[in-house]
């Protein structure tokens, strides 16, 4: 029953992350229709992305606190209900401010799901969580891939040119800024196709609602007391440098996610400006990056069953460093650009889930800790692309995107050995327990050997004493027998010696030719 429950939890989590990916990716192709629905231009409602990103940050932090206080399944069910309510309300929203509020609510619910889902998967499978973490994040990538297709089906294919604005990312808090082609294709207000396009929100919302019902069923099968007792047991293995390790992984995810989103967002522009590719070639290059990302993440589900999280991170970092070096210094070669892009996308696929699985082996990953990882990833995807866009605007002739990929790869390669050193530092409690056990063994073993030796010596001494007494008794008895043979009858000397012999020998003396009774009679 326990194994079946764990598999049910894992399947429901994957289904929820599939809906999470669809909820985020659907904003790209429907962004122009949202603008038309509120009577605005695309450039006038950019702040809805800011609202959703801030909501994700706040939701991640709140979810980290709530996850340690209440049942995980109940918290995830409520967060998905919040996402469903927001998705249902968006098609009928005609005010830009209300649309921003709804996006913030959806972002907050997604932040809670992203934080709680990772922690619940770790708590459910513990040391076996590697493949399930990879499956969890692959489900998100699959949802991000399906969302544009779903949007196209809802419209009937009449606006397929707007689907190019959908971007697939690895984190559930990633913002999807529409491309220039989508921004220029803003339909006029009250476009009849807009309402059909927005039906995709209803479909995705219904799917998430059904998934939340399964979380409520799981809540009825689990108890918060059990979760708290398990959490209290895991506190005993807190790493010696827990917070420095968590802080470094926070920075690690910030650079990693920032580099991934930056490259996925700007490789299309870089290919057209610096590599002088056509639009179709640039789009194909962008698809190669995300395609390699998705394929490698799916393969990592099976690879995690044979490789440790540390090994997968090391392989990803080596591939990332090699491919980013080729992109930074040899991108003017077409083969280097295409090959480097494919390898770079594949190297990014497994880092985030493997990083969470790796740190869980050394220290406790609770709700607050997981929320820091999600917040770090969110800050990376918000700050680094903005900084790259600003620098690229200032320095037109420098491939800032490729140099950013190289610098972030160097930073992550340097950070991981430091984290590994901190994670493997011996704990004070462990060393104290080892020393105490050694002392106890020494104390228990030494007296035992001493007592045994003393007992053996005492036995030898007693045996020697017994032999001496026996020898002395034999000598006395022999001498008495000789005397009795030489002197017939009783004599005063024999009578005087008899009490002493009685005490020594324990028997009345036997005189030749008589008995004890007779001897006593003679004495009387």
From TrEMBL:
Transmembrane residue ranges: 7-25, 45-67, 74-91, 97-123, 135-155, 198-220, 241-268, 337-359, 371-391, 397-420
Family: Belongs to the major facilitator superfamily.
Keyword tags: Membrane, Transmembrane, Transmembrane helix
GO cellular component: membrane
Alphabetical list of Pfam families matching this protein: MFS_1
Cell compartment(s), UniProt: Membrane
Stretches with biased composition (Acidic residues): 452-462
Membrane recorded as keyword: yes
InterPro entries listed in its UniProt record: MFS, MFS_trans_sf
Protein name (record): MFS4B protein
Listed SUPFAM superfamilies: MFS general substrate transporter
GO molecular function, one term: transmembrane transporter activity
Membrane topology: Multi-pass membrane protein
Region called Disordered, residue ranges: 443-462, 481-524
Annotated source species: Regulus satrapa (Golden-crowned kinglet)
Gene3D superfamilies in alphabetical order: MFS general substrate transporter like domains (1.20.1250.20)
């Amino acid at each position: 029953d326990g194994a079946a429950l764990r598999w049910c939890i894992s399947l429901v989590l994957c289904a929820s992350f599939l809906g999470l990916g669809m909820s985020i990716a659907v904003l790209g192709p429907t962004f122009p229709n949202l603008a038309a629905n509120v009577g605005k231009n695309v450039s006038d409602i950019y702040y809805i992305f800011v609202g959703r990103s801030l909501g994700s940050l706040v939701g991640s932090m709140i979810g980290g606190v709530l996850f340690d206080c209440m049942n995980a399944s109940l918290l995830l069910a409520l967060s998905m209900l919040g996402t469903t309510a927001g998705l249902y309300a968006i098609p009928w929203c005609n005010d830009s401010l209300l649309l921003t509020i709804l996006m913030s609510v959806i972002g907050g619910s997604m932040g809670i799901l992203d934080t709680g889902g990772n922690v619940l998967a770790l708590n459910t499978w513990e040391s076996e969580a590697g493949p399930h973490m990879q499956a969890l994040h692959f489900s998100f990538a699959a949802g991000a891939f399906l969302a544009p297709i779903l949007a196209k089906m809802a419209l009937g294919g009449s606006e397929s040119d707007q689907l190019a604005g959908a971007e697939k990312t690895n984190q559930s808090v990633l913002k999807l800024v529409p491309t220039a082609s989508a921004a220029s294709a803003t339909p006029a207000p009250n476009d009849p196709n807009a309402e059909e396009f927005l039906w995709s929100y209803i479909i995705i919302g219904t799917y998430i609602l059904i998934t939340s019902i399964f979380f409520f069923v799981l809540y009825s099968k689990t108890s918060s007391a059990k979760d708290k007792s398990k959490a209290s047991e895991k506190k005993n293995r807190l790493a010696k440098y827990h917070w420095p390790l968590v802080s470094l992984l926070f920075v690690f995810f910030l650079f990693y996610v920032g580099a991934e989103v930056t490259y996925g967002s700007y490789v299309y522009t870089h290919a057209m400006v610096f590599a002088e590719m056509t639009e179709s070639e640039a789009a194909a290059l962008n698809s190669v990056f995300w395609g390699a990302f998705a394929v490698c993440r799916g393969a990592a589900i099976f690879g995690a069953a044979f490789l440790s999280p540390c090994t997968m991170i090391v392989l990803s970092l080596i591939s990332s460093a090699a491919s980013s070096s080729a992109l930074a210094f040899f991108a003017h070669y077409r083969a280097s650009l295409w090959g480097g892009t494919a390898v770079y996308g594949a190297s990014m696929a497994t880092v985030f889930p493997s990083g969470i699985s790796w740190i869980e082996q050394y220290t406790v990953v609770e709700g607050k800790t997981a929320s820091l990882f999600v917040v770090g990833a969110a800050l990376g995807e918000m700050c680094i692309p903005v900084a790259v866009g600003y620098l690229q605007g200032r320095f037109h002739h420098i491939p800032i995107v490729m140099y950013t990929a190289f610098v972030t790869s160097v930073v992550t390669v340097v950070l991981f050995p430091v984290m590994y050193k901190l994670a493997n530092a011996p704990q004070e409690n462990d060393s104290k327990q080892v020393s105490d056990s050694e002392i106890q063994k020494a104390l228990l073993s030494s007296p035992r050997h001493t007592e045994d030796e003393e007992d053996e010596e005492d036995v030898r001494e007693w045996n020697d004493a017994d032999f001496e007494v026996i020898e002395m008794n034999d000598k006395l008895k022999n001498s008495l027998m000789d005397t009795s043979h030489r002197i017939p009858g009783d004599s005063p000397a024999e009578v005087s010696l008899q009490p002493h012999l009685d005490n020594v020998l324990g028997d009345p003396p036997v005189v030749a030719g008589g008995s004890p009774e007779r001897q006593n009679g003679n004495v009387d």
